[in-house]
Design a protein that fits this description.
With 329 residues, the protein is of the alpha+beta class. Among the domains are: 41-180, 2-Layer Sandwich (Nucleotidyltransferase, domain 5), CATH 3.30.420; 268-296, no CATH class. The chain contains 9 helices and 13 strands. The strands form 4 sheets. The chain has a 5-stranded mixed beta sheet with strand order 3-2-1-4-5, with helices on both faces. Strands 9-6-13 form a 3-stranded antiparallel beta sheet. It has a 3-stranded antiparallel beta sheet with strand order 10-11-12, with no helix packed on it. A hairpin with a 6-residue loop joins strand 10 and strand 11. It is globular and about 80 Å long. It starts with a helix and ends in a 6-residue tail after the last strand. This is Integrase catalytic domain-containing protein. Pfam families: rve. One of its GO terms (molecular function) is nucleic acid binding.
Length: 329
């Protein structure tokens, strides 16, 4: 009787569709590969400060080098167009550090526009966009946003309308502090030398020795890059171990029927959700269901991205709620 009760509960269509999942989420963390060196891969994002400055700026265009962690913070207006964003990128990054091989970003309308894609193609840069409602895929820029918010609170006026004037100071403070991932400051790793501060002139012990020769400098910098790779690997290993504790490995197979979360699916009038597709007609229900049943899936086991035969959208991030029971209730 106990086995029959368990089987009945597991195959109940209403329970599978409507009740929340209490098990650990599926899918193990798989971070992006470590870039080969400085300037190879960058992350970018738009940070909304929620306050319009005296100069009419509201957003911060955040650009971070994924290897050195070096950041540029660029104030811009809320209504900045794609063309203006491209100009800011060229003037504030490309002119100083060259063209990156890969650009990681979210799916802001300016990053998904044809103009941005064409500009990236002309630059020879590959676009790597995150999936919706999954900001941790662009964790480098998201973490930088938190750092900027934290530092701005210490330096802006009570009126908060001078934040754009403080951005150069905020960027300088961040870039000159030793990063916990690389164990060296972003400035020293990205520029190859450590810019001096007032403290270096006040304290004799902070003064550097004579400038090394060209060959010696090259050897030292190459050694620094190798050490940075090792530090990033250790940091990634620690992050993977921590993030995977509450997760389960995905065991989906091609052709299985799965459930897809419906809370982030595009809604129609009166908040209706499409539930299934039949005879080329859309059917919906007044009470949006938590999970939507799909008919098929095309992906390898433990993949991060799944191709699902769903009438609304075919591509989903790996955190599918689970497989649909193949048995009748």
């Amino acid at each position: 009787m106990l086995d029959d009760a368990k089987k009945y509960v597991q195959t109940c269509q209403v329970c599978q569709r409507d009740k929340p999942r209490t098990q650990a989420p599926l899918g193990l963390l798989k971070p992006l590969p470590i870039p080969a060196g400085p300037g190879q891969s960058i992350s970018m994002d738009f940070m909304d400060t929620l306050v319009t400055s005296k100069n009419g700026k509201r957003h911060i265009f955040v650009i971070v080098d994924k290897f050195t962690k070096y950041a540029r913070l660029i104030p811009m207006s809320e209504t900045a167009t794609t063309e203006h964003v491209i100009k800011l990128f060229m003037d504030n990054w490309v002119c100083d550090f060259g063209l990156p091989k890969t650009i990681v970003s979210d799916r802001d309308v300016r990053f998904t526009s044809e103009m941005w894609k064409k500009a990236a193609e002309q630059m020879g840069s590959q676009l790597q966009m995150t999936f919706g409602n999954h900001p941790e895929a662009n964790g480098q820029a998201e973490q930088m946003n938190r750092v900027v918010q934290h530092l701005l609170r210490h330096y802006i006026k009570p009126s908060q309308d001078d934040w754009d004037e403080k951005l150069p100071l905020i960027a300088s403070l961040y870039n000159n502090v030793v990063h916990n991932t690389t164990d060296v400051s972003p400035n020293q790793l990205h520029l190859g030398w450590k810019p001096k501060s007032a403290l270096d002139f006040l304290l004799p012990e902070n003064r550097t020795a004579a400038t090394p020769g060209t060959i010696e400098f090259g050897v030292q910098y190459e050694k620094l890059l190798q050490q940075t790779v090792e530090h990033i690997k250790k940091s990634q290993e620690a992050m993977i171990a921590s993030e995977n504790k509450p997760r389960r490995q995905s065991t989906f197979k091609v052709g299985e029927r799965v459930w897809v979360k419906a809370n982030n699916v595009k809604t129609f009038n009166d908040g209706y959700h499409i539930l299934h597709h039949a005879n080329s007609k859309l059917h919906w229900t007044e009470l949006p269901k938590r999970f939507m049943e799909t008919l098929d899936k095309h992906a390898e086991a433990d993949a991060l991205i799944f191709q699902v035969a769903c009438p609304i959208h075919s591509t989903f991030y790996f955190r599918l709620p689970g497989r649909k029971s193949s048995c009748d209730p």
